[in-house]
Amino acid sequence: MIHIEQVSKTFASRGGAVLAVDRVDLDVEPGGFVAIVGPSGCGKTTLLRMMAGLETLSDGRILVDGDAVVGPSPKLGVVFQRPVLLEWRTILQNLLLPIELRRRPNDADRENAKRLLAMVGLTDFADRYPRELSGGMQQRASICRALIADPEVILLDEPFGALDALTREHLHLEFNELWRSTGKTVVMITHDIPEAVFLAERVVVMGPRPGRIIETFDVPFGPERDERVQADPRFGQLVLRIRESLEAKETTR
Ligand SMILES: Nc1ncnc2c1ncn2[C@@H]1O[C@H](COP(=O)(O)OP(=O)(O)OP(=O)(O)O)[C@@H](O)[C@H]1O
Is 202 helix (H, G, I), strand (E, B) or coil? Predict the structure, then answer.
């Protein structure tokens, strides 16, 4: 579904050119879930923004479902670290925004939005404004908005990073179910290694700048996950191996 081939990104800055992403190759199969972890500033966000068509490539190519990414596309839904909801629109109106940018929303769109809100337990909040919702609820609404145009791929940049631990755990379970029930292809950036192992099928480790993929780990659990996965010794072992992979590279900087 996603094919990333020898992708590089160089930014021009006052101090000279900054190589943020260096010849990254990555393939994600349809319905797959890949998490990307790496030290701060290693180019994760830049890579995700290039996948989303929000940043140009300096070199290489990115294909989504066979087509080169040349700009934002309805095939891609993006969720950012902070829920970027418009304060003056209700939750339902916020959800319908991606549709409105292309055409007038109809009753079927409104039904679809309500179905998504029901999936994440926000049925009663459709007509409320973002400020009336907690951070976790707003982030759920943002995930619904990324899904409204029925994209084949969802890209998430630390979507749960700004939430408290309990809310984050709830959303992990919800997001796992959402992924399984919709069959979407997911790429998620996170700093949280246990989160990556809990949610993804594959965890990709990026090394410090210039950002390159240094190691890939397969997660030994099926798609259906719950709290018991974390008690499995393989969970802790994998978290440790990924942490060691990250730390090995940090010390050889
Ligand atoms: N628009 C830009 N102009 C110049 N340099 C940039 C730009 N965007 C990112 N960079 C540089 O590219 C590098 C990678 O940044 P990026 O935000 O992708 O890292 P990251 O891995 O997502 O970091 P973090 O985990 O801290 O969010 C950094 O050195 C950053 O300073």
Answer: strand
* 211 and 20 Cβ atoms separated by less than 8 Å: yes
Is residue 53 within 8 A of residue 47, CB to CB? The reply is no
Q: How far is the CA of 235 from the centre of ligand 1 (A)?
A: 30
> How many Å lie between the centroid of ligand 1 and the Cα of residue 57?
14
Ligand 1, CB within 6 Å, residue ranges: 11, 13, 18, 20, 38, 40-46, 209
Probe residue for ligand 1, chosen from 44, 47, 50, 204 as the CB with the greatest number of ligand atoms within 8 Å: 44
Taking the CA of residue 43 as reference, the ligand 1 atom at the shortest distance is: 18
Q: What is the pLDDT of residues 35-72, one digit of tens each?
A: 999 998 899 999 999 999 999 999 999 999 999 999 88
* Predicted complex ipTM: 0.95
CA distance 249 to 233: 25
Residue 206 one-letter amino acid = M
Amino acid at 82: R
DSSP per position, 77-145: EEE-SS----TTS-HHHHHHHHHHTTS---HHHHHHHHHHHHHTT-GGGTTS-GGGS-HHHHHHHHHHH
**pLDDT by residue (tens digit) across 113-146?**
998 898 888 999 999 999 999 988 998 899 889 8
Q: Which residue has the least CA distance to atom 30 on ligand 1?
A: 41
Number of residues written out for the chain:
253
| Angstrom distances, CA of residue 39 to CA of 2, 21, 158, 205 | 23, 13, 13, 9
pTM given for the model? 0.90
Distance 232 CA to ligand 1 centre (A): 35
